[in-house]
Design a protein that fits this description.
five-stranded antiparallel sheet; alpha+beta; about 250 residues
């Protein structure tokens, strides 16, 4: 027993410097990664790299440095990195096959960065959700809805689906339907609707607003009111036109 105790005691004495140094390397490395991330972000911001690309590059760099730190720590503990890399490769292959969806999301993120269908700050509609793009990560895109809710959409589905980007152009056309009955004088109603849209200060003069008969139903005549506005004014203009139209239509 004494010999066994001495053997293990000597082993601990010999091996403890490696453990302590590995722990120090891990702690210093984690601190260094935070500093590295902040410095890299500042450099990219100073060089005016697009915010979308900044976040994506940071994610890749940080994970790459973390893997390098992990390999350094285990090598310091005396574990053979060559055999470990082989084991890691086999595990990576198995994980990759089981996480095909995640790889699809990664590829989708790359496509979004390369072709830029949208960027951080844009208002988009995709996968049945509408909101402002807050962050684009490796696997998901984070948007903020008008109800102040965060939605995380997988990049794979996002890159393969239909995307409406409301921010690439500074103006939008508003399409409204105003209904009246058959007893109304259509020329008078059309004239009054034209006066409303032309008199609105936030309706753009060019392209010119349009008021046309859109549809004849069994009980109503539907007018299509098409006006061009700035993106920020869309909701307010729609509300004003519908409110002012209330006094001239009969149902």
């Amino acid at each position: 027993m004494n010999n066994l105790f001495v053997h293990y005691f000597n082993f601990l004495v010999d091996y403890s410097p490696r453990v302590i140094s590995a722990i120090l390397i891990a702690l210093i490395g984690m601190w260094g990664i935070k500093i590295f991330s902040k410095v890299a972000e500042r450099i990219m911001i100073k060089r005016e790299i697009e915010p979308t690309l900044i976040q994506f590059i940071l994610d890749i760099l940080v994970w790459g440095v973390r893997i390098l730190l992990f390999v350094t720590v285990i090598s310091r503990l005396g574990i053979e990195t060559s055999s470990f890399v082989a084991i890691l490769g086999a595990i990576g292959l198995a994980v990759g096959m089981s996480l095909q969806g995640s790889l699809s999301n990664f590829a989708g993120g790359m496509l979004i960065i390369m072709f830029k269908p949208f960027k951080v700050g844009d208002n988009i509609e995709a996968q049945g959700e509408t909101g402002k793009v807050m962050e684009i990560h490796i696997f998901t895109t984070k948007i903020l809805t008008a109800q102040n809710q965060f939605i995380y959409i997988p990049n794979g589905a996002l890159s393969n689906g239909k995307i409406k980007n409301f921010s690439q152009k500074t103006t939008r056309r508003s399409d409204l339907i105003v209904r009246t009955n058959y007893s109304s004088d259509l020329k008078v109603v059309k004239s009054q609707l034209e006066a409303i849209v032309k008199g609105h200060t936030k309706v753009l003069k060019s392209p010119a607003p349009e008021v046309t008969v859109n549809e004849l139903t069994e009980t109503t005549v539907n007018f299509a009111v098409r006006v061009w506005v700035k993106n920020a004014d869309l909701a307010a203009v729609n509300s004003d036109i519908l409110e002012q139209s209330k006094g001239i239509v009969k149902l």
